[in-house]
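Spend some time on this chain, tokens included, and walk me through the fold:

. . .
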Amino acid sequence: MCGITGWVAFDRDLTAERAVLEAMTATQACRGPDVGGVHLEPHAALGRLHLTRTGTGTGTGTGTGRDANPDTDPDGGEQPISVEHDGRPLAVLSFTGELHNHRELRAELASAGHRFRTRSSAEVVLHAYLEWGEGLAERLNGAYAFAVWDARHEELLLVRDRLGVKPLHYHPTPDGVVFGTGLGAVLAHPAVRAVVDLDGLRELLSFTRTPGATPYRGVHEVRPGHLVRVRHGGVTVRRYWALEAREHVDSLESTVATVRALLDDIVHRQLDSDLPLCSLLSGGLDSSALTALAAKTLRQAGAGPVRSFAVDFTGRDEELHPDPARSTPDGPYARMLARHVGADHSVIELDAAELTELRRSRAVLRARDLPGGLADLDVALLLLFRRVRERAAVALSGEAADELFGGYPWHHDPAAIAADDFPWAARLDGGLAGPGSAPREQLLDADLVRKLDLAGHRRAQYREALAEVPHLASADPTERRMREISYLDLTRFAGVLLDRNERMSRAAGLEVRVPFCDHRLVQYVFNTPWAMKNVDGRQKSLLRAAVRDLLPDAVADRVKSPYPITADPRYPQLLRADLARLVDGRKSPALELLDRRRLADALAPDTDPQSVRLGVDLALDLDVWLTDHRVTLEL
């Protein structure tokens, strides 16, 4: 686990600014507090903090070689890492993430004359920069964020992976830039103020991400598939990868075979680890497909069985009552798949009291950097990742499969498809965290809510996103609309869940890999006609066809179920008790943003705690966030 940060200033000497850089670097502690490194020279300062990773348990990877990823490789070397000539650095790199084609790149660079001192993929990236400049971005396969300081030309390059799995933020200054993995690293710089205006609050409360934006004025994220170059003349941004509209000429049979071949290759690459590796198994199609593919790959390599982990909640009845969010319990399906593929399977039980205790520790808010998450879903995910980390170091997750293959309810709802809005808007208005829940802003001051006009903000976001969608002139109206929905899912919806997944896993010390985000698969499936994705009229038809031979029929045919969701009434009840203490104290800066009448309604005995848990969670987060981050509101 690691976080990177840095500062470039062309009009001052940064060699005397170690204390500032170390303070910025220290904010990344929840991503890996063990080992820190800094690099200082007159106009550039780079830092990195990471967790020293040792094996846990008896999990296994493919056994085909060392991982050589900087977060996992014991021989990965310290960072920032540099390449020198005559004792002077040519370029310096600070890197976080995983590179899945590091072996091919290392061989290609070695044949071109490059010599390596470590086994780390960070060094591969640095030499790739020296060989290809910013053109290296198009050659990388993985999930990463990195900064390269080119000492020869005094230029900084910031690069983020194509799907935006890894976060990276920056704040331009009059003579350079401040950057960091987490927002806290940027805000720790004395030149950056934590100012949130109405636009920032809209970003905070909107479930739909605006790529490049953050709630803080002047602080940006490097957009997925983009790079940022900082020179004496200023900051420039370039897009190095985008979803493209291409004519799909493959037959259905060939398309299914191509998807399977891509998945086989992706899983094989992402199993490359000498540290204990596992899969996060819900018993749904996505996680079951990855677990089965991993089991097959390990079996072919002569390695041990794949380890899998499922989550359950103490006291939950196995015969779960169906509702719109969850129609079937996970346990039986996860066990069925595990038996089918011979997995070493474990069930991790979570308890509402544990969730509340973790919620009160502020660990989730520190991991997120911002308030306004998904309440107990976020807490449950962090707690699950912590428990998995006790037995494994690397995990495969099925995140983004629904966006890619058409697995959400709105992909099959004619009203949502026809709406002139984000297709998930109806569920957004009704709450995305389960039945009966309401939007996060439900406890905010009524005048503030009117001023924010979140509906208008969403309409503007929608128009901006729609204008980006690449189309084929030959597409019929149905295909055109489904392409739009696919693009919106991948660029506006997936980012929220990927960011949540990445931050919670890193805070737990667990590396979670997301095979469905491999850009080769994403580009191919994006251009596959909807008729093929929906060939049998059900969710994720194409994925099901590609992996059906590996799965029991009951698992292959199971309807989507969210993961993990608590459905435990004790959690929101305990949360409301915290809200009552906040209101009674009458000293919280968050009370200026909240509506007294709505707070009283939320605390009324006859109010269903489950229906207000998102609003209560946000109110409690605002209390901590405004105080701890010294946020200035300009509303």
About this structure: The mean pLDDT is 89. The radius of gyration is 24 Å. The chain is about 40% helix and 15% strand. The longest strand covers residues 88-99.
